[in-house]
Amino acid sequence: MKELICINCPLGCRLNVDDSNLADIKVTGNTCLRGVKYAVSEVTAPKRMVTSSVPVAGSSVSRVSVKTDNPVPKEKIFDVLKLIKTVKATAPVEIGDVLYRNICDGVNIVATSTAPKV
Fold first, then answer.
1. On the CB side of 27, how many CA atoms lie within 13 Å of its CA?
2. Is residue 6 within 8 Å of 13, Cβ to Cβ?
3. Which residues contact 69 (CB under 8 A, 6 or more apart)?
4. What is the mean pLDDT of the chain?
5. In the 3-class helix/strand/coil scheme, how is 8-56 assigned residue by residue?
6. Pairwise CA distance, residues 102 & 100, whole Å
7. Distance (Å, rounded) from C-alpha 38 to C-alpha 12?
């Protein structure tokens, strides 16, 4: 039995997850079906968003913040961070610009801040 706190909505339900049989995972404590989906995903294939920053050339701003546009498998986080270290942006950079495509399983790295051109 595992205990999780659901992060899919502000309720933060305390979930009890019986994953002794991965073919029949039992979840209790959820208020909605999103809690069940979250719990099953968390015990079978956990994923996370990755955030970081990258250097920018040609701007008064030296770095822009970035994130993955979708969660990546938890076991690939350090590989993704290693690849992000190789990314360099060129101004202008706008929020949502894709700075690196298909970094992992079709997931892109996108800018979450701006860098105007000087």
1. 22
2. yes
3. 98, 107, 108, 109, 110
4. 96
5. CCCCCCEEEEECCCCCCCEEECCCCHHHHHHHHHHHHCCEECCEEEEEE
6. 7
7. 12
pLDDT digits (tens, 9 = 90+) for 79-91: 999 999 999 999 9
Q: 57 in helix, strand or coil?
A: strand
pTM: 0.83
List the structure tokens of 53: 């920053």
Longest dimension (CA), the chain: 59
Between the CA of residue 105 and those of 3, 66, 71, 73, 76, what are the distances in Å?
29, 18, 10, 9, 10
Over the stretch 63-80, which tens digit does the pLDDT of each residue have? 999 999 999 999 999 999
Q: For residues 41 and 35, give the distance between their C-alpha atoms in angstroms, rounded to a whole number.
A: 10
Q: Are 73 and 118 in contact (CB under 8 A)?
A: no
Taking the C-alpha atoms of residue 28 and residue 86, their distance in angstroms, rounded to an integer, is: 43
